[in-house]
Amino acid sequence: MSTILVTGGTGTLGRLVTERLRERGHEVRVLSRRAQPYAVDLREGGTALDTALEGVDTVVHCASSPRGGDEQAAANLIAAARRAGTRHLVYISIVGVDRVPMGYYGAKLAVERLVEESGLGWTVLRATQFHELVTEVLRMLSKPPVMPLPAGVSDQPVEVAEVADRLAELAGGEPAGRVPDLGGPEVRTLESLARAYLAATGRRRVLVRVPLAGKAYRGFRTGGHLAPERAVGKRTFEEYLAGRFGDRGGRA
Description:
It is a single chain. The protein contains ten helices and ten strands. It is an alpha/beta fold. The strands form three sheets. The protein has a six-stranded parallel beta sheet with strand order 2-1-3-4-5-8, sandwiched between helices. Strands 6-10 form a two-stranded parallel sheet. Helix 1 packs across helix 6, helix 3 packs parallel to helix 4 (103-116) and helix 7 packs parallel to helix 9. The longest helix is centred in the first third of the chain and has 15 residues, at 70-84. The protein is globular, with a radius of gyration of 19 Å. Pfam families: NAD_binding_10.
């Protein structure tokens, strides 16, 4: 089996990718800013990154931050991978990065282009939003008694473990270029997702649909971040909520 480096290997997705790869018999190195022995800030690169990539056949690039720096991190990673003779770079991106004009999405699209032009064998998988992210957004919106929801927006949350399974499969194979998107099993209105979240957490809120302005909102409202033709995920949002919150809603 090959030696595989997982960037962001202590994060929500990277941790699961690491587990899946080890279950498949691969030697896996976990790279993050604090995890020894491969503690590296990709935005800075340096000799520690070269050391982490020595003898690595495949890189699964899960590290990402909405606070910025993804393009520099990817450029440093690609340069080090080329020096190390790495054969395959697998990158996880987001459905809609080319259709929703938002800063973080633009950075993800720019990284996709860096990967494609890297000179390495490459694979890019785009996924819809994880259940965890949708839940966190709803948690923040539900803090006041009145819960505002962007009017006319839907989402297609996907189980992070299913994305990890797919990434591990891709990392064990040959470079495949841009592969089909991975979307959650259902396209749901934000209102229906909010009601499911409130029921699961035992909260009561007044839901208010709020029209917003701007190109990013228009992109979400028109479904640029959705992949209804790739609704291949299995675990629904309600199943995720039941696993996370148990019967908390039933006790309220």
